[in-house]
Amino acid sequence: MPENHGVDTGAAATSLDLMAEGEAKALATRIEGHWHRLGHATVKVWAEAVDPNSRPVIWVIQSNLVSGLPPARQ
After folding, report:
1. Is 31 inside any structural domain?
2. 0.85 exceeded by pTM
């Protein structure tokens, strides 16, 4: 299977796209840590349930990045 490096290919989601709550939160922490190590302490990243009542619960990663870049420093 070709690697798409996180690019939205428009392909339908598969079971490989799903993460449990703990995995989603760990990924969010890892992404936030990456930006903090680069000196962007204002970047915030978190995992959020799309619909907590659905089964399985679908988790998405949210952030305050603007067009993929850290927010402007103030």
Report:
1. yes
2. no
- Residue 47 located in a structural domain: yes
Range of 44's domain? 18-63
pLDDT, tens digit only, all 74 positions of the chain:
455 555 565 656 555 567 899 999 999 999 999 999 999 999 999 999 998 888 888 999 999 999 999 998 75
CA-CA distance, 11 to 2, in Å (whole number)? 12
Contact yes or no for 35/43 (Cβ under 8 A): yes
Tally of domains in the chain: 1
Residue 73 to residue 56: CA distance in whole angstroms: 38
Closest by Cα among 45, 41, 38, 42 to 62:
45
